[in-house]
Amino acid sequence: MNRITGRSGGDSLIEMSPTDSFNEDLNGYHHQASSSDGSLHPGQSRVDKHQQSKDSVFFRDGLRRIDFVLSYVDDKDGERKQERRKVYEANLVKVGLELETENKSESEDGKTYFVKIHAPWEVLATYADVLKIKVPFKANDIPNNREMPMNWLSTPFRLPDDIMHPEPDYFTAPFNKSKSDFFLIDDKDTFFPPSTRNRIVFYILSRCSYISEECGDKDKKGIKRLLNNGTYTAAFPLHDSRYWTRSKDLNCESERYNLYKHWAGFFSFFKEQPLNLIRKYYGEKIGIYFAWLGFYTEMLLFAAIVGTICFVYGFLTYDDNEWSKEICSEKVGGNIVMCPLCDRKCSFWKLNTTCNSSWQSHLFDNVGTVFFAIFMGIWVTLFLEFWKRRQARLEYEWDLVDFEEEQQQLQLRPEYETKCTNRKLNRITQDMEPYLPITSKCARTCLSGATVLFWISLIIACIIGVIAYRLAVYAAFASIMKDSPTSHLQVVGPYITPQLATSVTASCINFVIIMILNLMYERVAVWITDMEIPKTHLEYENKLTVKMFLFQFVNYYSSCFYVAFFKGKFVGYPGKYAYMFGSWSSLRNEECDPGGCLIELTTQLVIVMTGKQVWGNIQEALVPWLMNWWGSRRARCHPESLYSRWEQDHDLQGFGQLGLFYEYLEMVIQFGFITLFVASFPLAPLLALINNIIEIRVDAWKLTTQFRRPVAAKAHSIGAWAEILGGIAVLSVVTNAFIVAFTSDMIPRLVYMYAYQPEMTMKGYIENSLSVFEISKIPLANSPEEGENPSWYNSSITTCRYRDYRYPPGHEKEYSHTMQFWHILAAKMAFIIIMEHVVFMVKFFVAWMIPDVPSDVRARVKRERYLVQEYLHNYEVEKLKVQLSQASECTCPPMIYPSLPKHEVLSECL
To answer: pLDDT tens-digit profile of 641-652?
Structure first.
C-alpha cells in the first residue's frame, strides 16, 4: 500500500495498488472506471431500466451497494468541467472506489448523468482504520440494572422493539485493519452500516484532487469545490427506499419507511423517538439533535404543568382582587380623574375605563408569578444538568466517549487553504501548511466587529422607530376612543383600551420587521464569517453561531426588554414630562396602564413568540414541499419504473451543511422566550410544549420525505449551543427578578399591605398609589385641545391623578418623591438580591448534587477501556505464540520461552 500525503496529516489519501486491495474480479465483476461522458465500456451491456427495481440501491450487477451518487449535466463550459471530472473520477478509482455511470439518455430528464460510487471492503477497512471508527469486539458482560419502577406505565408511549432497533450491547474499540480478526466480523458486506459507508466515501470525496499531478496545484481538491464551480450538480448518499412503502428489494433495509411510519407521522406525537434508528440512518450529529429536542420537550412538560397551575391560581383568585374591584367601582374608579396620557390629543379620563385590563393583568400578576419565576430558575438548572447526564449516556451507547473531535472537525477548510497563500512550517507534522498573517487576521476581525455593531445598531434603530410609532399612534387611538371604548368598536370594544390597541399593533409591526431583518441578517452573518476565513469547520460553525445568535437575540428580545424595563419608568410627572428625543420633540414617553406594564409585556411576548413559531413551522413544512413538487413534476408524467432511486433523491432538496444550525437556533431562541420573560407569561412553556410536539414531527417528516439523505456525521454534544443555553439560564434569573420587582406591581402592593395598611388588606391601595396634580398648573403644551375632553369633564374638577408616589400640591415638598417611594424602591432591590441569591444557591447546589456522568456509565467506560487493553494484549500474545510455534518447526535447537505476564491495566482506566 502506498500513501499520497498532503500538507497536513488529516488530508492524506490512501492509494490502493492492485495487489494490495483486491482481485480484479470482485463479486464476479471486472472493475472499470466509467468515463465521464457516460458511454458504456466494451463488454458492458446496457440494462433495461424497466427490469430494474426502482428501489434498487445497487449497481447493475445487483451485488455492489451504491454508497454515494454524483450528478452532472453538460453545459457551455463543458470541456473544462469534463476534464475535471475525468481526473477526479480517475483519482477516485486510484484510491479504490468503484464507479458506474448512468448515461443521460437513461435519466428521466434526458440531460443528467449519474455517477454511482461503491466502496469495497478494502477501502472501508482502510479508512475505518484512518478515522478510528469504533466496532464491536466483545459482547457486554455488565448486567443492565436500569429497570425503572412501574415501567408498565410507559407502555403506551413505547415503539415496537423492531422499530427501536435494539442491538446486542457490545464493547467496542477503534478499528484496526491489521487486526481485523480481533473484531466480531460476521459479514463484511453488512459489517459497516450504510451511514458509516457514506461517511467514509464522503471523507474520500472531500480530499480527492481534480487536477493532474503535473499541474502541481494540490489545493484543487474536494467535492465541495466541484459543487461550487458547477462541475457536479449534486452529491448525496441514497435513501434505502421510498418513504411510503417498503422496498421491493429484499436486500434493502427500508429504514426510511420505518422512520416515516413510526416517527414522522403526526399521530405518533405521544410516542418515544426511535433514536437508535435515527442515529443508524442519519448519523450521530442528527441523532444528538433529536435526542436533545425530545429531552427538552419532556422537561417542558413539567414547566408547562406548573405554569398552568399558576395561571389557574390567578383565575381562581379573580374575585379576591381588591385593587381591580376599586378600579372598576363607580365610587372609587368612577370618581378618580386621571391626567392626560399624551399631549394635546389625549383627554382627561376616568380610572374605571381600565377595568378590563386590570382584571386581565391579575391573571399573570399575582403571588403565583413570584413562585413560578423562582421555579423556572431551578427548572432551567435541572434541565441543563439532566441533559448532561443524558448526553453522557448517549456518548457511551453511541461509541462517542473517546471521539476525537479534532479528527472530524478540525481539518482545514478548503476555502482557508485556497485564500491563504502564505505557508509556514507546522512544528508537529513538519509539513508546510497555509496560514493567515496576523495583520490580515486583525484587520478582518476589526471589520467583522464593526459590521456586527452596525447591524445591531440598525436593529436598535428599528426598535426605536417602533417605540416612536407607539408614542405617535397612542394619541390617535386615545382621540378615537375618548368618549367610550365602544363608540367605534362594538364587538370587542369593552376589552380594548388605547394602551392595548397601541401595544397589539406595535407588536405586530415589530414582528414583521423582525422577520424581514432575519432574512438580511442570515446573509450578513454568513458573509462576515466567510470574510474572516475561519481555519476549521468547527471554528466556522462557532463563529457563525455566535453572530447569528447575537443578531437574533437583539432582534427578538429588544422589544420585550423595552416594555419590561424601560416603558413607564422615565415619564416624569404633569408639568415636567420626559420626552423621547428631548423637550423639543412631541413624543412623550409612554406611561404604564394603572394595572401595570406586565399585561403589555405579556401581549408582546405572545405575539412575537407565537407568530415566530407558527410562521417557522409553516415555512419549514411548506417551502420544501412546494419546491419538491415543482422539481418532480416531469417525473409524474412517466411510468413509475423509469424513476430510479437516485433520480428520486436527486429531485429532493439538499439538507445543507448548516441545516441543523437553523434548527438549533430556532429552539434556542424559543428557550430564551420561556426563560427570560416567563414571569410575565406563565403559559409560555405550555405554548412552547405544543410547538415542540409539532416541531419534532415536522422536522422528522421534512427529513424523511423532503430532503436528500444527509451525509452521516459524528458529534458527541450539541456544541456551542450548550454554552449559550447556560448563559441564557443565568441571565433569566436576573431578568425575571427585575420583571417581578419593576414591571409587576407585586412589591408595591406588599409594601402597602404590610407597612401602610394597619388592617393588612388591600383596601385603599389604588388611592394610595396615585398622586395628585393641580389641573390649573398643567402647561398649555400638555393640556388637551378644545373638544378633546369628554362630556363629563367640567370646571369643577380641579385636580387629576397620575401613577407615582409624589407629595400633593401645597405640601412643602410638593411633587417630590414621598418616603413610600423610597421604601418601595428599597423593597424592590432587596427582593432582587434575595431572589437571585436564593435561586443561584439552589442552582449551584443542584448542579453539585447531580453528577454529569451517571455512575453506571462511568463503570462501563472504565470496564471497556480495561477490556480493550487486556484483549488486545491477549490477542498479541496469541499471535506471537503462533509465530513462535511456526518458527520452532525449523531444525534449530528448541528453546524455552518464558510465559508472558498478564497485561497490567493503567490505574487511570480503573
So the answer is: 467 889 889 989
